[in-house]
Amino acid sequence: MREGTARMIPLLANAIEAHGGLSRWNAHRRLTATIVTGGDLWALKGLDQDQDPRTMRIDLHRQWASLEPFAKPGQRTEFNPDRIAIVTADGRIVAERKNPRASFARHDMRTHWDPLHRAYFNGYALWTYLTTPFLLAMDGFEVREIAPWREGAEIWRGLRASFPAAIASHSLEQDFYFGSDMLIRRHDYRVEIAGHFPATQYASDPVTIGGITTPTRRRIYLRDDDLMPMRDALMVSIDLSDVRFD
User: Fold this and answer.
1) Which of 21, 69, 146, 220 can pair with 201 through a Cys bridge, CB separation 3.0 to 4.6 Å?
2) Phi, then psi, of 46 in degrees rounded to 5
3) pLDDT digits (tens, 9 = 90+) for 188-239
4) Which domains does the chain have, with CATH numbers?
5) DSSP character for 120?
């Protein structure tokens, strides 16, 4: 899936250029990074979460992701919107689920997850984060500018995106906020597969690799009705290192 510019609004065009531009993005095929995750969500889902580094791989132009090791050494995940699987290094399928989104029916924020639930969440969430803002120029997305967000003394311009059905993500509508340098600062959404709880993600500590700028620190909080993050409710933390394009 390649991006087009026919319906790109100026805010999105400026944000994409600030992150490296479509030409550089399209010159790459796959991104790999070392990831460490934490936060309160995992315990709510009945899962243990260690601080061990893992390797995350995504395709940039189709929705595919893989995390390894997963569950135990020698296993990895394989994610696309229609299938989630846990496989061994030699390709043997340990567990697999077709139409994985349907398995979250009637879940709320505290419904426990099995390993395939977790693998699906990891796959679509990290793919969304690591391809932002470039994915918003893909076919099927609809975007418009919304009211800015004031963060302390800063004003962050806002963009609302409607996601196409073919892309698995948190929710149909998601909001993105960009600083004066047009780099991503904040990302708001509802986590549909966990009772539609509202979340705010702060993105910081950008690095530039292969001409593309991406945040390496993400902190995701519950959000209240006034769009304020609840700082005592850190749902997920994500720290990236050794980001590279393959």
Assistant:
1) 220
2) 75, 25
3) 999 999 999 999 999 999 999 999 999 999 999 999 999 999 999 999 999 9
4) 10-241 (2.50.20.10)
5) H
